[in-house]
């Protein structure tokens, strides 16, 4: 069994494929933890925060907001922050991503998604 962070980016997919192809891994387990910080803001919110300044954002009225006076950076606009709006759907999306990455194989390891 191979254990990697959730929301598999390219490096995690690479590691899974290497584990399967080179080490003979027979099972992958996708586990998400509950109350993940990625659930508490949207991609729109996190993309806007660095533009306001480099200071740590503040949390108020159940949302984050920028406290900086600038200058900030617009680079966050180009990042997929992979925020989570539905825990169960997020696990299933991760499993689908991993299966897609191993689709060239005649068989691939079994999956057990967990929340």
Automatic annotation (TrEMBL):
InterPro entries per UniProt: Carbonic_anhydrase_sf
SUPFAM superfamilies attached to this UniProt entry: beta-carbonic anhydrase, cab (SSF53056)
Full protein name: Carbonic anhydrase
Organism of derivation: Cryobacterium breve
